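Q: I'm building a small set of examples for a reading group on sequence design. Run inverse folding on the following structure and report the sequence directly after it, with nothing in between.
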């Protein structure tokens, strides 16, 4: 599908520098784009590609000052990255197939409530007392357990499982293989060295606009609820244990693991493979570098952390710089010890 540059600029509330009638039909990275492609520039370190790209049009910042001429049409906007995301959404809507109706075979319990314009794919299962909101999409091979709630406009992609009594809000997306409400990891040690299962009687609550990545798991609470608040985005292969709380608009990259009863604040950013110990609190706005280990509570808001155990990022850089000097420092110490032995007669 072709789009005129001028129409795209109008959609983005931007301005055009060049031929507004030029057409684009594909999207590509700026360094690999060719004629007919639309791309974007948001990171200044890629600016050199702007002057060599073969793209027909590039979305750029309205504050960009060109260092040399360009051959492409520029669409100038306030925030290039967000604007490019809007274009991707527009293209997605134009090419995504429309899924509707109840496919067969699928199972919907007679006591389940299914809203208007709902899609249920083949081999999906919707249990007794489940509630499916308007315009929700339950793709093939999904499981919705007894008494679970799926909010309006939410999407369960193939293989997602929502266990009994779990509450999924509106406009949520569960990607392939996500499991919400599996039993929390609770086992009581016994005198003979064995473990006795601790029943997990709570639930999971996902508020609105939560995105859960493929094969991510969120365990039900022992009591009450594991709560994922509004706007949280979880990458693939994330594990949230029982009784946790994740604050609004927090994001976690792949393979983050959060132990039981941890409470993570709002607008936090956890990089890939970050480990979070149980029964701790993480302050709002915390940013944690990949592969870091959080073993105690973070009280200061809006700080950056790294290392295992974590320290404030600037301090970690100083520690790393000092460690690089350790071999030379050891040599100096040994030399001084040798001189001291010689001066004192051994």
């Amino acid at each position: 599908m072709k789009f005129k540059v001028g129409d795209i600029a109008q959609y983005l509330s931007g301005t055009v520098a060049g031929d507004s009638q030029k057409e684009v039909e594909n999207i590509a990275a700026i360094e690999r784009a060719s004629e007919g492609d639309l791309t974007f520039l948001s990171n200044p370190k890629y600016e050199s590609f702007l002057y060599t790209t073969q793209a027909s049009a590039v979305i750029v910042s309205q504050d960009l000052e060109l260092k040399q001429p360009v051959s492409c049409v520029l669409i100038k906007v306030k925030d290039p990255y967000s604007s490019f995301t809007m274009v991707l959404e527009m293209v997605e809507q134009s090419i995504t197939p429309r899924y509707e109706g109840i496919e067969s075979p699928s199972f919907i319990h007679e006591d389940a409530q299914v809203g208007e314009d709902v899609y249920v794919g083949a081999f999906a299962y919707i249990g007794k007392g489940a509630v499916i909101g308007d315009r929700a999409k339950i793709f093939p091979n999904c499981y919705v357990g007894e008494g679970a709630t799926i909010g309006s406009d939410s999407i369960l992609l193939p293989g997602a499982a929502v266990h009994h009594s779990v509450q999924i809000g509106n406009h949520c997306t569960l990607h392939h293989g996500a499991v919400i409400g599996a039993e929390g990891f609770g086992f009581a040690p016994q005198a003979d060295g064995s473990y006795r299962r601790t029943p997990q009687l709570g639930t999971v609550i996902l508020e609105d606009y939560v995105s859960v990545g493929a094969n991510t798991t969120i365990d039900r609470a022992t009591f009450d609820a594991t709560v994922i608040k509004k706007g949280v985005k979880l990458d693939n292969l994330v594990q949230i244990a029982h009784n946790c709380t994740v604050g609004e608009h927090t994001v976690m990259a792949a393979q983050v693991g959060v132990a039981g009863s941890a409470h993570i604040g709002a607008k936090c950013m956890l990089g890939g493979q970050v480990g979070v110990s149980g029964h701790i609190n993480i302050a709002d706005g915390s940013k944690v570098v990949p592969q870091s280990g959080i073993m105690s509570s973070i009280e200061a808001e809006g700080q950056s952390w790294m290392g295992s155990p974590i320290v404030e990022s600037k301090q970690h850089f100083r520690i790393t710089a000092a460690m690089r000097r350790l071999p030379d420092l050891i040599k100096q110490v040994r030399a001084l010890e040798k001189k001291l032995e010689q001066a004192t007669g051994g």
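The longest strand covers residues 57-61.
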